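RECORD TYPE: inverse folding
INPUT: structure tokens
STRUCTURE:
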């Protein structure tokens, strides 16, 4: 089928050009298509602030509220209350119109989906060309001219669009299944330059089995100069998902540090395995056998106001490690490099923090050695949490808050901690101590 363009002529007299909306729309699509076609391989760092809200008093409802009721309450601060918030920081590389993700600064991209890297909470992809290609380049959308308006004192033209299910590539899903959905929305362009400024995308009511009622995504765009040419890139994306259980998921994503890279080979590296420097300047493999005990401590504060899952962290070895079987000696104070894997605050009668971390390498004598660890225990006294007071007036005594720790089978090497009763402005302190054991990594299989 050819492109079906529906035009509304209402307000046409307000346009200051001789060209009609149909002709302008053709120019807009051609301009967007050109920038997508010429876009070089590039990467950006994205910071995602996520929060989950729930319908106030949902526990007292008789039966489940309808999706129409929940959508009507969306964004109403009097009806919704915050119950979790977290932040993610990732690198995203775009090549051949596909998106690849890694934790920030990791320098290693695979073919895993974002939902496989970030295993909990709402995630969204498609900001780097998928929607633009489907709406403006492919003959998938039906358009209508909405009119001319002012945005921050800037004259803009607005169009509506609709992509039917039969032509859609928009997939929504939960951890079990995926569903294809149509979508519609509105976009605005600068009246003078015809540059795309904003794009709002909204699904219809979603299948009940998806556990979602509706998803809305708003993208803001800007022109960035790369390779001596201007290209259309997203600056921020806001996604709101209304869920059938009375909750809303809000993701606010900001992109920074976008720059061109030359070839995917510069982004993907192989694991070299643990090595140790020798006297002749060569390297030999360090074998960390199972069960070596490592007590570790952070050497930096983790400020909840700025830190994110994905950020690198630095620690140190609290005590010297001696392996009588292999003769390996790791000195006290050896530097540990790791990464935050979770940093989520839960609100309610008591505010708690869920913190996940992973140590990835240890360094001494100027040589870094990859290692795999498993969490065993945590020193609750090292978290600097406010104490509780228990007992009667005459027997009042301090009670140290207990930090719960655990591991998860789907996150090998990551230790998770639940810190109770945190206060506003809390930071995980330098000196936060936890105890781990080494896990021997099987050598990679080789063939002839």
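DESIGNED SEQUENCE:
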């Amino acid at each position: 089928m050819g492109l079906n363009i529906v035009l509304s002529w209402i307000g046409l007299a307000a346009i200051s050009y001789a060209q009609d909306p149909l002709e302008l729309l053709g120019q807009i699509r051609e301009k967007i298509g050109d920038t997508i076609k010429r876009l070089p391989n590039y990467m950006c760092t994205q910071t995602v602030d996520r929060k989950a809200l729930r319908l106030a008093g949902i526990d007292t409802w008789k039966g489940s509220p309808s999706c129409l009721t929940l959508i009507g309450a969306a964004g109403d601060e009097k009806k919704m209350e915050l119950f979790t918030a977290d932040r993610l920081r990732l690198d995203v590389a775009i090549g051949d119109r596909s998106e690849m993700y890694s934790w920030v600064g990791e320098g290693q991209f695979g073919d895993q989906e974002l939902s496989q890297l970030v295993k909990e909470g709402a995630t969204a992809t498609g900001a780097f060309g998928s929607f633009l290609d489907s709406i403006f380049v492919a003959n998938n959308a039906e358009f209508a001219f909405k009119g001319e308006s002012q945005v921050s004192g800037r004259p803009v033209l607005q169009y509506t669009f609709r992509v039917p299910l039969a032509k859609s590539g928009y997939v929504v899903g939960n951890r079990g299944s995926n569903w294809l959905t149509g979508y519609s929305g509105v976009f605005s362009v600068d009246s003078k330059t015809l540059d795309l400024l904003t794009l709002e995308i909204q699904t219809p009511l979603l299948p009940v089995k998806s556990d979602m009622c509706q998803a809305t995504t708003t993208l803001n765009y800007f022109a960035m100069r790369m390779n001596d040419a201007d290209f259309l890139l997203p600056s921020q994306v806001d996604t709101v998902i209304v869920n059938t259980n009375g909750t809303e998921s809000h993701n606010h994503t900001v992109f920074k540090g976008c720059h061109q890279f030359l070839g995917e080979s510069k982004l993907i590296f192989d694991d070299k395995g643990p090595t140790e420097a020798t006297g002749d300047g060569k390297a030999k493999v360090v074998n960390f056998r199972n069960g070596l005990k490592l007590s570790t401590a952070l050497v930096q504060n983790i400020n909840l106001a700025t830190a994110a899952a994905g950020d690198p962290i630095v620690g140190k070895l609290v005590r010297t490690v001696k392996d009588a079987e292999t003769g390996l000696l790791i000195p006290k104070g050896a530097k540990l490099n790791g990464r935050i894997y979770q940093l989520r605050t839960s609100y309610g009668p008591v505010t708690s923090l869920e913190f996940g971390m992973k140590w990835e390498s240890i360094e001494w004598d100027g040589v870094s050695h990859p290692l795999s660890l498993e969490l065993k225990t945590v020193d609750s006294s090292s978290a600097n949490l406010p104490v509780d007071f228990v007992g009667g007036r005459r027997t009042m005594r301090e009670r140290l808050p207990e930090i719960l720790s655990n591991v998860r089978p789907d996150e090998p090497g990551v230790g998770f901690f639940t810190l109770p009763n945190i206060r506003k402005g809390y930071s995980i302190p330098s000196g936060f101590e936890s105890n781990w054991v080494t896990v021997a990594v099987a050598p990679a299989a080789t063939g002839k």
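NOTES: The helical segments are 21-38, 67-73, 114-117, 130-137.
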